[in-house]
Design a protein that fits this description.
Layout lengths: L1 H36 L3 H13 L9 H24 L7 E8 L15 E2 L17 E2 L6 E7 L5 E7 L5 E2 L3 E2 L10 E6 L5 E6 L9 E8 L4 E2 L3 E2 L10 E6 L5 E6 L7 E8 L11 H8 L9 H8 L7 H36 L3 H41 L11 H9 L19 E2 L11 E2 L15 E10 L11 E2 L1 E5 L5 E8 L2 H13 L6 E6 L2 E3 L1 H10 L2 E8 L6 H10 L4 E6 L2 E9 L2 H13 L5 E7 L2
Helix pairs in contact: 1-2, 2-3, 6-7, 11-12
Length: about 625
């Protein structure tokens, strides 16, 4: 009896200790989250690390414990990311800020055409009703569109489509892995030149919640480059949803819930920084700087400008000023080109003369190319200047004002701040666009499913192939009688009877390997048959043909839910071999072939890779 009493006390004590541990742990985590929210990342990271190191024996952890550990690791990573982002923060000048409902805040951001904010086409608007995430900015004269759409798992992914001609758009595809994550990517929109994609994401590395990112279009790969965090203060510990530079070049606008509830956002308007001065932001100042309530005698740029009046400049500082002047000239030239292009687009819309429209189209294409090259040159200059800043800071040198003359700097600071006004736009109707239809590739891999699939005879590739014939019937067989085999090929004989064969096998050994499975499924008289370029041959003849060339090849493409149109175009231009979708070692791939020699396969693979199609491989299939 005493033993039972002692055990009861021990269990009660253990339960009490566990409850006390849980309470203390919860309090510590709450404290760490508060530190993180207020940008005290080092303190938050320290608590998160200590929490993980002090967890109970892992053999005693439950599924809930594992989930908690994973959540804490995510928060630790966000704190470490936040600390790193503050090392290269900027301090833009606030013009104004205003609170709006999250469901329509974008309607108040200037710089977008009236009625251009719309829901995506109906087939991609799942989950968008009543939520702002699926909203897109679209105009009838646009050459590309981006929008966020939900996948089957409920995640939001950015879809990208380009105009193919006056009426047809390419089938929207999820943007590449440089942008798409396991999290959500929302509120995407393109810069006026179409070469920058801005969006919010909670899947990329950031301070936590949604951060703001930009990706540049890479002309060499014809795809989007790695997404870059726009950095502090545009990204914060709150949810940051939208970033936009107005066409006039005066203002940068971004929206965030860092100061509001989850149903509202604050839209901040700052003066656009021609060349943002990147400096380390002390963590104790970050919360005030994020909300633009921090006050100091001089801004970092003003302080740098005041110190640039030294009697002489070092070579590094002189080179920096020269680069800044060149950057300013390029930006002014770019803005003039964008304004001129917009005017030409308006003139083009108003012109009905077909000959004039053709000439104007050529002018616009040429100018778009010039804008693209100029934009790339600006990005290169910005990268160069950022590197120059880091090198000067590393040497302990002051970063001079961004203009070559101190007087010009003073004049710029004395200029009247440009007038800003929020917009009050109306939402437009969903666009009535026609997307290119891409027929999904037929999966001709041999398998057994719930219901049999009868494939078209035209799907059979040319060259030597083997089937497993399962029956001959006096009339058409029912799907139930085919017992779930796929693919099944039905042929009508001159006698009026029907034969049924399953599978496409490129070697006798492959067919032999699956023959036992077919027999056990209820077709004990099943046998292997062969066809060469569509004509029936005996298995003896087939094996002789097979031995004449010991290897056949196929080209596979992995990593795509649907083949890009560029890939289909290249395949059709290089071969008449069929395109199939097959499960190869547990991975769904597109298969083109077979090829009777390696040279043919290599020619196709090379052409695909030249068009930046990824996941291309050549597979050698040995005949046994």
């Amino acid at each position: 009896m005493k033993k039972h009493i002692c055990l009861s006390f021990i269990f009660i004590a253990l339960a009490g200790a566990q409850a006390l541990y849980s309470q203390n742990a919860a309090a510590k985590l709450k404290s760490a989250e508060e530190h993180h929210k207020n940008y005290r990342f080092n303190e938050a990271a320290g608590i998160f690390r200590n929490f993980l190191e002090s967890r109970p024996d892992s053999t005693l952890t439950t599924q809930a414990d594992s989930a908690l550990n994973a959540d804490v690791r995510i928060k630790l990573t966000a704190s470490e990311n936040g600390s790193n982002l503050l090392k290269f923060g900027s301090s833009p000048q606030l013009i104004t800020k205003k609170v709006f409902p999250i469901n329509d805040f974008y309607l108040n951001i200037p710089g977008f055409k009236e009625n251009s904010w719309v829901l995506p086409p109906a087939e991609y608007a799942k989950g968008a009703a009543g939520k702002p995430y699926g909203i897109m900015n679209f105009t009838p004269d646009a050459k590309a569109m981006v929008f966020s759409a939900q996948d089957e798992s409920g995640s939001w992914n950015i879809m990208y489509s380009v105009r193919l001609n006056d009426t047809i758009w390419s089938a929207p595809e999820i943007v590449n892995e440089n942008i798409t994550t396991a999290g959500n990517e929302i509120f995407p929109h393109l810069s006026p030149c179409g070469k920058k994609l801005y969006f919010a994401s909670n899947g990329h590395s950031g301070m936590g919640g949604y951060d703001l990112f930009v990706s540049q279009w890479n002309e060499e790969t014809s795809d989007w480059d790695t997404a870059q965090n726009l950095g502090f203060p545009y990204s914060s510990t709150g949810n940051d949803y939208f970033y936009h530079n107005t066409p006039c070049g005066n203002f940068t606008i971004f929206s965030s819930d860092r100061e509001t509830s989850e149903n509202q956002v604050t839209t901040y308007v700052t003066l656009t920084e021609v060349m943002a001065l990147k400096q380390e932001i002390p963590q104790k100042e970050a919360a005030a700087r994020a909300n633009f309530t921090f006050s100091s005698a001089k801004s970092p740029r003003q302080a740098a400008a005041g110190k640039s009046n030294a009697p002489s400049l070092l070579p590094e500082q002189s080179a920096y000023l020269k680069a800044a002047d060149e950057l300013k000239f390029k930006r002014e030239k770019l803005q003039k080109a964008l304004d001129q292009l917009q005017k030409r687009r308006r003139d083009y819309t108003a012109t009905t003369d077909s000959l004039k429209r053709i000439a104007m189209e050529k002018q616009m294409v040429d100018q778009e190319m010039d804008i693209m090259l100029l934009d790339a040159s600006i990005n290169s200059s910005v990268t160069t200047m950022q590197q120059m800043e880091l090198e000067m800071l590393g040497k302990g040198l002051e970063i001079p004002a961004i203009t070559g003359q101190a007087i010009q700097q003073q004049q710029q600071e004395q200029k009247e701040i440009p007038t800003f006004a929020f917009a009050s736009a109306q939402k437009g109707a969903a666009p009535n666009v026609i997307f290119e239809k891409i027929e999904p590739a037929v999966d001709l891999s041999f398998k057994i499913e719930k219901e049999a699939f009868i494939a078209d005879l035209s799907e059979i590739p040319s060259g030597l192939i083997y089937h497993i014939q399962i029956m001959t019937a006096p009339k058409k067989a029912s799907l139930k009688a085919l017992k779930g085999f796929s693919p099944v090929f039905e042929r009508k004989l001159p006698s009026g009877k029907y034969t049924y064969s399953v599978g496409i096998f490129h070697t006798y050994a492959e067919a032999q390997k699956n023959l036992a499975t077919v027999k056990k499924k209820g077709f004990p008289t099943a046998l292997i048959t062969a066809y060469n370029n569509g004509k029936s041959v005996s298995t003896k003849q087939a094996r002789t043909i097979e031995q004449q060339d010991n290897s056949i090849y196929r080209v596979t493409i992995g990593g795509y839910d649907a083949l890009p149109q560029d890939a289909i175009t290249v395949i059709r231009a290089n071969t008449n071999r069929d395109i199939a979708k097959a499960n190869i070692n547990g991975i769904m791939k597109y298969v083109i072939g077979p090829f009777t020699n390696k040279t043919q396969a290599e020619a196709l693979a090379t052409a695909l890779m030249a068009q930046n199609v990824t996941g291309v491989e050549i597979e050698k299939l040995e005949n046994k």
